[in-house]
Amino acid sequence: MEYFEHGQSGRPTKTVHGYSKAELGVLQDDLARWKDITLSATLVPEESGAHYLSCSGMGKTTVSINDEIIFKQEGDVKDPMGFMLGGVPEKEFTFAFSKGESYSIKIQSSPQTGKDETGGVLEGRPGFRLGFMYRDEHDRDLLSEAVDLARSTDMVIVFTGHTPVWETEGQDQVSFDLPANGSLNKLVDAVATANDRTVVVNSTGVAIAMPWLSKVSAVLQAWFPGQEAGNAIADVLSGAVNPSGRLPVSFPKRIEDAPANGNFPGTKTDGQLTVHYQEGVFVGYRHYDRFPKTILFPFGFGLSYTTFKLADGQVSECSDGSFKAEVRVSNTGRLNGATVVQLYVGKNRKSPDHPVKVLAAFQKVFLQPQETQTVELYVAPSDFSYFDETSGSWRVDDGTYDFSFGQSSADIESIVSVRIETREMKV
Q1: Separation of alpha carbons 161 and 206, rounded Å
Q2: Domain range summary for the chain, segments of one domain joined by +
Q3: Count of alpha carbons within 13 Å of 159, Cβ hemisphere only?
Q4: Which of 8, 31, 123, 367 has a Cα at 20 to 30 A from 199?
Q5: Is 125 helix (H, G, I), strand (E, B) or coil?
Q6: Could you give the CA distance from residue 143 to residue 145 in angstroms, rounded to a whole number?
């Protein structure tokens, strides 16, 4: 690895022999700032064939084999932060190799110049990645192998999701579908067709489309659980732990069903990107309450290895103007477990200007099989008020309000209607 003053010819300012990787991290070496980098290596392939390579760089980058340029990136990467976090797709190409011959490979890469205003804090920092894979390995029919294996087993667990290449800080996922050009969706669909006892464990930080949902037996949304991921997932799948998590977001069926669709990422004028939040207060479940057929999984949804039932909701007004809500919760299954009692409040007479209901309180409750408890929730008027721009205050308008008890925003099991007079709370 050789370091040269940016844009200048001559002797390298630094040379590292025995460099162990075909990459340079953006923040790996402060001495690399504003340096042109050249990595020289020799490859002796163990197989003949048109093998695959891929490359991307922070700045202008070329790859040559035996002094023939086979890849060229003309300028700065468009997403330097994405590159730093491994989230920029590399361009893939092939080269015809012969087994046992020596090939001189050279990668030349320049720093991020910032000329197109993409550099920011990473301006002047070089970085590149070069990948290599034998053709036979690259072109293996992994899907057919997975289907054959699925047919021969009692049950299947398919792990799907995102890595930093597809979802990371400062970068949105490219598609609402699982990544890898649709291959993950094809994998789940094909395996579940071969074996209907298929469980999908999905690790994403966001909602995704699940076109294969009707074919699988279960889905475990694992999010990004960190270093204990393996132990936690194993405990849930084996039944050592009864899961009791609840979705903190809604999962729409299609990206077109999301409230921000059409508004995001906005419009650019004179280089300035502007987003108009035209959905207003109708974000998340407040949007899907108006369009219930567009939702795949509602906010607050979650299953376990037992079942629960809510009944006999009651609401009374306290002396301080708040409300005491009570509901009976029963574990109707055969295992210990927990559910989350959710209380939503909304005006009985619906209005196009206000949400159908809003989450006002919630509580997790642990129950033994066939056990019943009464859960108490306390709600202040401010918990379901709206901001009136005209008066500059938070308001609860006069009218009848439904206090809805449920285990998700779409699973309401008990409703109590309460007459409430106008409340106004100054900021």
Answers
A1: 10
A2: 2-138, 142-297, 308-426
A3: 11
A4: 367
A5: coil
A6: 5
CA distance 49 to 405: 64
Q: One-letter amino acid identity for 263?
A: N
Closest-CA residue to 286 (of 254, 250, 256):
250
Name the band, by pLDDT with cuts 50, 70 and 90, for residue 78: confident
Tokens of 390: 């005209």
The Cα–Cα gap between 262 and 220 comes to 30
8 Å CB contact between 331 and 390: no
- Residues 316-368 have pLDDT tens digits of 999 999 999 999 999 999 999 999 999 999 999 999 999 999 999 999 999 99
Instruction: Please say whether the beta carbons of 205 and 162 come within 8 A.
Output: yes
CA pair distance 358, 346, nearest whole angstrom:
6
Return the percent helix, strand and coil in the chain, to nearest 5: 15, 40, 45
CATH number for the domain running over 308-426? 2.60.40.10
Confidence (pLDDT) at 116: 55
Query: What's the whole-model pTM score?
Result: 0.87
Q: For 142-297, which CATH superfamily applies? A: Glycoside hydrolase family 3 C-terminal domain (3.40.50.1700)
Q: Which DSSP category does 89 fall into?
A: P
- Each residue of 26-76: pLDDT tens digit? 888 888 999 999 999 999 999 999 999 999 999 999 999 999 999 999 999
Sheet holding 23-24, edge to edge: 23-24, 128-133, 49-57, 91-97
